[in-house]
Design a protein that fits this description.
2 helices; three-stranded antiparallel beta sheet; binds iron/sulfur cluster; five-stranded mixed beta sheet; alpha+beta; CPE0013-like fold; 119 residues; elongated
Length: 119
């Protein structure tokens, strides 16, 4: 059994995850999201990753990016390495894909804001 705090919302419910049972049983969750989170966290923890990427020719030098969905926690450092030294050309718009299919996860890094061309 593992104990953890659900991070899906500010309530922070304390979960007990019985990962030695099939299917995995979760107690302490107030809603279904917590049950899903607890079961996934016990087997393959995932996180949404945020970072910044350099912009060439933009009205700002950097653009914030994030994974469009959560990726396995164990892949975070390798995913961030894909952004190291990467530059995107302005304009870039919120939602534009910066890195497609991160490490074969099917999840993209996308821009979280718009950067226009510098005048
Ligand atoms: S179990 Fe539901 S209510 Fe509790 S922290 Fe998770 S998402 Fe929020």
């Amino acid at each position: 059994m593992k104990e953890m705090i659900c991070i899906c919302c500010p309530m922070g419910c304390r979960l007990k995850v019985y990962d030695d049972e099939t299917p995995i049983r979760v107690e302490g969750n107030t809603c279904r999201r917590g049950a899903k989170y607890g079961a996934e966290e016990a087997v393959c923890p995932k996180r949404v990753v945020t970072a910044t990427v350099r912009v060439k020719g933009g009205d700002t030098e950097m653009v914030s990016v994030k994974t469009k969905d959560a990726i396995p926690k164990r892949a975070i450092f390798d995913a961030l390495a894909l952004l190291k030294g990467r530059t995107v050309a302005a304009p870039i718009f919120e939602g534009d894909v910066v890195v497609k299919d991160i490490l074969g996860t099917g999840v993209d890094f996308v821009a979280t804001k718009t950067v226009r061309k510098s005048i």
